[in-house]
Amino acid sequence: MLQNKTTDLDIVRPVVDMLRVHAPGRVNLIGDHTDYTGGLVFPMAVDRGITIDYRVGGSLIALESTAEPGAVVVPLPFDSDPSTVSPQWASYVAAMAAELGTTQGIIGTVASEIPSGAGLSSSAALECALGLALGFDGPPLDLALAARRAEHAATGVPTGIMDQLCIASATEGHATLIDCHTLDVVQVPVPTDLDIVVEFVAHRTLVGSAYTDRVAECARAEAVLGPLRSASITVVERHRAELDDVAFRRARHVVTENERVRDFADALGRGDYPSAGRLMTASHESLRSDFNTSTSAIDRAVERCVTSPGVFGARMTGGGFGGCIVAICEPGALDSGWSVRPSAGAHRVRVLSDGG
Ligand code: ADP
Ligand code: MG
Fold first, then answer.
1. N or C, which end of the chain is more exposed by having fewer CB within 10 Å?
2. According to the model, what pLDDT value does residue 209 have?
């Protein structure tokens, strides 16, 4: 049997290994503003994400980021209000540490290929990557729930579970169809002969307060209609007179969007890309006119895509008020933006060799 022997080299090696974790960003193919009423969403983890290289040790989290200013130093255990720490991105770090009850420190660097504040969920990628770096070891659903609670504590915005659950649970080659009430996730194969293109339009603005308003408006509709996740458009129309115009339009978006998610997954499954594309474009129109989360720049970008040859459909993606659009098209039909591929969820990568 081979014995491990200490060699001269071991004496000069760092005592603690450099470790790496990676969490992908996500693009939502269809199903926006349906998660916080327990509806259906259909996001896909992409081949761009956040990577943290770090060493374990000490009683502090010490991180710098290639994308955000300021070093983050969080003393452990962290039990204060994470939304008050600075720099701003330290709130996510402190919130995740508080959520996981972290006592063992790390020191490292956060690198990102996702534009921040662009609707590709850099925040959830950061939370999930941090969770793994801080030693989380459990099922993807638990990581997602912890990350979502951390996002709420860090930002005060009552976001749904879509981003964290997609990023924690995705498998390569698949998009994640999520029932946000039961938290069931179905991994749906993404056809390889379909291009999925993401185009960055503008950084989002006013997103926190406007998002919180939308959550309240849906709650107002639910007070009359009951849970939107199980309501139909017939029920919404029947109760129109009991709803103010805003609550009516928000409800109409949510119930028709849930239906579109189901139909989109079916269309994708049978390779009916024109139908899938029409559903994406209808989703955009509903978000624009009923949910009022689009902008004129986003509308123009969607319009340009859907009138291009070989494009099946396009829509704004994510919370809105700026951000990105997503299109599905024949391979190579769009040369703007990034062609993204369905990727694995948050994971530990490998132990780097010494000095590397
Ligand atoms: P989105 O999730 O759509 O990208 P959010 O506003 O929810 O937009 O999250 C953006 C925030 O996440 C940033 O303001 C920053 O605090 C944090 N963040 C994102 N990427 C990084 C990164 N690479 N390094 C440090 N913080 C990051
Ligand atoms: Mg976010």
1. N
2. 87
